[in-house]
Amino acid sequence: MTTDRLFTTDVPARLDRLPWGRFHWLVIAALGITWILDGLEVTVVGSLSGALADPRALGLSATEIGLSASAYITGAVLGALLFGDLTDRFGRKRLFLVTLGVYLIATLATGLSWNFWSFAMFRALTGAGIGGEYAAVNSAIDELIPARRRGFAALAINGSFWIGAALGALTSLVVLDPNIFPVAIGWRFAFALGGVMAFVILFIRRFVPESPRWLMTHGRPEEAARIVSDIEADIARRGQPGADTEAARIALRPRLHRSFLTLGSTLFLHYPKRTVLSLTLMATQAFCYNAIFFTYALILTRFYDVAPAGIGWFMLPFALGNFLGPLLLGPLFDSVGRKPMIAATYGISGVLMALTGYLFALGVLSAAEQTAAWMIIFFFASAGASAAYLTVSECFPLETRAMTIALFYAFGTAIGGIAGPAIFGALIENGARDRLMWGYLFGGVLMLLAAGVEILIGVTAECRPLESVAPPLSHAD
């Protein structure tokens, strides 16, 4: 159903010309927590995998640990699809409060698991909350951050996943120390940290407004303009200079309800190349990340005889490389451009991943050297993976943004993420280095494939307003 109400608005231009200030830091702090929580969840389970296999804990096999990781990813896929649709229909703010609440309850419940099936079920529910967060939060961030800084902000926020990873690694060092916690219960406390963080952030998110861009495309231009005026007034009160020129206006005739037929035609008729590009970038990075990161603790314990209590020390440098990549390379995605930087980060990480797999099979790398190799590889891969989320978020019309993010996250993760941990878990259980090498080589080839696709059909979106990269469906010529 559509409305005949035609109006013009300068809301997008006013949002893009805002000087960087307190409001933008609020957005980053309140919404960027999503990636920290995801990093915490992934690393906690990865670091705890040795302890979870202990009969005094849950006594999980390597295959069951891989399957529980796949359950988390499956939940994230389903959560993204469900909450992504609701986010486009009912607004960004409502849903990023709901999804954080789902995560909070589910991660606390994980710590109360009593066997493999309960653990896998609660991991799936935790993933559902995080998957829904990706759709609601990514769309809100890109719609609130000025175009000139959208690339760097998005990559830096996505890179904060690894702050959570570091927290997870440090947490594991404490809860897995038998001098502090008994083996049977120490792992349960690890899941409490995410719940506490989510509880605090729920209160902070109350101060983040609804996306003015979402409001204007849903027939509420006055409310959208009022929110932008409030932001501008706050900036003025803090002594920051505002723009003294008139902002450009666009004409809209909002579509109040977006159908799945409209979504399908947008993806496959209007933007087929961007659809192929987004799916390729999301699937390839998901396979490599989930396959390698979910199972690295098992590799350390199986092939390098690292004690479960010491896994966190190896996860910390891994996390550092992943965080520094988006942080240091992020500005180049706005200056040098999306296309060359995405192709370069995917290509470099693909070559290095294949080389590391070969050296691992030869047995010439120590545990420290293997970790250093992953630190370098994911310095580049992390920036590329973060840019994949940015590509999906900025390259499609605003009215379908959250559902588009959800779809590509779901399909990309389903293709690359669910199978990865299960396959690598089985390869590790086999115990042969040469078998695992083929998994690493396959991941490297996938990253190189994605680099080639980016070179051929990548989108030049740096420093451009979202409405210029992909005009709203409600745009009136």
Instruction: Output the CATH topology.
Output: Growth Hormone, Chain: A
Number of helices: 21
Helix content: over 70%
Q: How many structural units, i.e. domains?
A: 1
Widest β-sheet, arrangement of strands: 1-2
Portion of residues in beta strands equals under 5%
Largest sheet, if any?
2 strands, antiparallel
Which CATH architecture? Answer: Up-down Bundle
- What is the C-level CATH assignment? Mainly Alpha
Overall strand count = 2
Integer average pLDDT: 84
The structure class reads mainly alpha
Overall shape: it is globular
Q: Are there runs of 5+ residues with pLDDT below 50, and where? A: none
Element-by-element helix/strand order = EHHHHHHHHHHHHEHHHHHHHHH
Please identify which CATH superfamily we are dealing with.
MFS general substrate transporter like domains
Our Rg estimate from Cα atoms comes to: 22 Å
What distance lies between the first and last C-alpha atoms, to the nearest angstrom?
19 Å
Explain this structure:
- This protein is an all-alpha fold.
- It is built from 21 helices and two strands.
- It is 75% helix and 1% strand.
- A two-stranded antiparallel sheet has the order 1-2.
- The chain has a single domain (7-235, 257-469), classed as Growth Hormone, Chain: A.
- Helix 2 packs antiparallel against helix 6.
